[in-house]
Model the fold of this input.
Amino acid sequence: MKRLLITTLIIGVAVAFGVGALHASKTMAGFEAVAAQLVSDYSGATRIVSEKWQYVFVLLIAVAVSWLTLSNVPRSRSRLLVGLFLVELFALSWVCSLYRIFFQPIPSVLALVFALAIAEGWSAFLRRDRSHLVRTFFADRLSKKEFRGLSDGTTPFDAEAKAYDVSVVVCDLGNKFATGRLRSGGLAFAEDSERAAFAEATSKFIRETAAHLTKEGAYLHAADGEGVVAFFGFPVPNPEHAQTAVRVVLDLIRNFRERRERNEKISRNCNIRAGVSSGVMIAGALKDSQRPLLLTSGEPIQLARRFCALNDLYGSNALIDTPTFDRVSETVVARPIDFVSGLNSHDRLEIYEPLWLTTEATPEHIARRDSFWSAVVLYREKRWAEAYNEFQKARGPEEEEDPPLQFYLRRLEPLVLQLTESL
Done:
């Protein structure tokens, strides 16, 4: 905003000075006289708008047109407004002549035309530089709609480093190495067909997940063999980025399960894993190199990667942190899983597993979630027998797998057994 104001004032004052000099030197006196006769009658006028007011009008018009052209108003609309303003200047001169007042419109018209030309030229120069940055940073990383908004300037983007409130989503395939054998720290496959199947499954997952995330409004930060990383709330701010991120993750999990049920060459042991973390991220352009680079850094990126990996420990499909849970608790049914250490070894973070959207959850779902929640609280209080009973209440149908529940039951069984033997 400050930069826009300064540029507007510079162009406005420069145009006003130039037009004022032309008018004061009588350089365009003949043109002014001929043009004025078309809309006004100088000989019949009893009063004339003074030179002082002419200069004031020139300055105000130049500044107004510059601001309108440089602002985020769509070009078609700004040009229409400037065109209407041009007509109004001649109409004003004609109306004044009806009251025997002579108003010379030409200096104001020239100020309008010059300000429009200079401001549009400056905008075109900035757009060319901005368009190059937008293509470099966001081509194939945003949906067509959002990329188009950034390209034509309707969506503002500042390449300077600044803070963004975002939700970071990291998705990967769990148990994707199940068909291979670890050898010397790497992955080995018995046959070439296994390597081909692994590559095909992974690349398909990356393509489809990346496409779905960008379609839903995310910025695609990375998509490779280590997983897919996307930001919601960047570069276009979105106050509901956390709700959108968790909803999209639940959609991905549901779609993956449906595909697996249709036996689309997906291993029964393979499943999608996701981590979501919300918070502040710093993003900005690094222009010192031959090719501009977009640098992003922040705790949510690292935490989301960690949560994604932790799913393999608990058997969950998705894990979110407390800031994300606080934002989505009204729209998503989630349950607590555990406390984990943060990036700082002194920090303890509570992680949750999102299960269903509130609108899709049944009373039975809510009851099972509440039993699981109570069981986790009792477990943390070391009330083993009560926790074990509550976890039993949280069981779903026999055909429904619940790895996090089994994770806790495995922890509790020896403790409950030891407690029983001591009685």
